[in-house]
Design brief:
The chain contains ten helices and no strands. By secondary structure, the protein is mainly α. It has one domain. Helix 3 packs antiparallel against helix 9 and helix 5 packs parallel to helix 7 (174-184).
Length: 259
């Protein structure tokens, strides 16, 4: 299997995990919020650790060989914050949608359908750059990409639930709820394909170093802006922190194993 094929498959697996969230929404009577908090914390830990200890380290080393240690570090930092800025801009452009708790309010079908559709579109926009980041990471360093894919897949599951539940209550169709949740994740493999078409002619060790620094910035923003706040909801702060540390530990052990 070629690296390109593997990269696209891994990105598709990460994106389509929103469909798992759609299934959970219908076959689980109650969401285990403590378990969700812990797993979201694990995802954040994996992404933060790999961003600083692996992606940024590789970017600094590669750019340092070309431009010298100090200049290479400066370029890495600039591209890192460029990734943060890109993620922040995308986040600001995505419309916020109100949460939905079917046990606490009388369903308004039109409103719920709009909530589900807007949420699906918002997540689709959000997942697109994730797909590019996952693809590039998978293409150049599969051993680093696999834990990232798992982390993204975990945090896509509750996103799938957020799409499926309002669509189901609006239409009464589990199938539609599942399909909407699944489609919201399709933009990740689409992002991978776009990344392949646009970036492949320019992919080399130098451009990969720049991309790694930018990807690190994107993942750090996602971790602190989305994963950790979601994990700490419902007074689950300690579980989120425990998950964060566990995710870092798992990532550290896995990276050492590949050395």
């Amino acid at each position: 299997m070629s690296n390109v094929t593997l990269a696209i498959i891994l990105t598709a697996l990460a994106g389509l995990s929103t469909g798992i969230g759609g299934l959970i929404a219908f076959f689980s009577k109650n969401t285990n919020k403590k378990f969700l908090a812990f797993t979201l914390g694990v995802s954040a830990g994996v992404m933060l650790y790999v961003s600083f200890m692996e992606l940024m380290a590789k970017a600094v080393a590669a750019l340092g060989e070309v431009y010298g240690a100090k200049t290479g570090t400066i370029y890495s930092v600039i591209w890192f914050f460029g990734g943060v800025f890109l993620a922040a801009v995308i986040d600001r452009l995505i419309p916020e949608t109100p949460g939905f708790d079917p046990s606490n309010q009388e369903p308004d079908k039109k409103s719920l359908m709009r909530t589900g559709v807007v949420t699906a579109l918002a997540l689709g926009i959000h997942n697109f750059p994730e797909g590019i980041a996952t693809f590039v990471s998978s293409l150049r360093s599969p051993e680093v990409a696999i834990p990232i894919v798992v982390a993204i897949a975990i945090h896509n599951i509750p996103e799938g639930i957020a799409v499926a539940v309002p669509v189901y209550f609006a239409t009464g169709s589990r199938k539609k709820g599942f399909l909407y949740s699944l489609f919201s994740g399709l933009t990740e493999p689409v992002g991978a394909i776009v990344g392949y078409l646009l970036l492949m002619p320019f992919i080399n060790d130098l451009t990969t170093a720049y991309v790694f620094a930018a990807v690190a910035g994107v993942m750090v923003f996602i971790s602190v802006d989305e994963l950790l706040p979601s994990a700490q909801a419902d007074n689950n702060t300690h579980l989120a922190v425990y998950g964060l540390v566990a995710g870092m530990a798992v990532m550290a052990v896995s990276l050492i194993g590949f050395m």
